[in-house]
Amino acid sequence: MTYFFQGKEGTSLDQYVRVANDILFNPEGTIDRAEQAYEQQLDAEDGDGSQSSLAGERALASIERVSDDPQAKVDQFEEREDALRERFQKAMA
Questions:
Q1: Do 22 and 38 contact (CB within 8 A), yes or no?
Q2: Burial group, residue 49, by CB count within 10 angstroms (0-12, 13-18, 19+)
Q3: Domains of the chain by residue range
Q4: How far is Cα 29 from Cα 45, in angstroms, rounded to an integer?
Q5: Tens digits of per-residue pLDDT, 25-80?
Q6: Are 53 and 42 in contact (CB under 8 A)?
């Protein structure tokens, strides 16, 4: 659901739509909130090397990898766009 739902199916659907729209329109903020939630969860635990601590650390690593990947793709896109624009201008000259 990538539009603003106006129906009356209940609060669960409304919450889902808000989250979906937030992910669509503010992906960086969504990633930041997920990362903060995992960090708070890890801080709440004692850090005794338990399985949940290890799972949390793996989750944080995955979030970091996900957040780095889009920026790399943006940079790659912008480089290609500049190269194509330059070629097009040379061809038009």
A1: no
A2: exposed
A3: 11-92
A4: 25
A5: 888 888 888 888 878 877 777 555 556 667 777 877 887 777 767 777 778 889 99
A6: yes
Which two structure tokens, joined as six digits, stand for 13? 């659907």
Distance of CA 27 to the CA centre of its chain: 4
If phi > 0 it is left, if psi is from -120 to 50 it is alpha, else beta; for residue 26 that is: beta
Q: What share of the chain is helix, strand, coil (3-state, %, to 5)?
A: 80, 0, 20
> Has this prediction a pTM greater than 0.70?
no
The torsion angles phi and psi of 70, rounded to 5 degrees, stand at -60, -40
Do 53 and 39 touch, CB atoms closer than 8 A? no
Is 74 strand, coil or helix? helix
Amino acid of residue 3: Y
Long-range contacts of 7-12 (CB under 8 A, 24+ apart): none
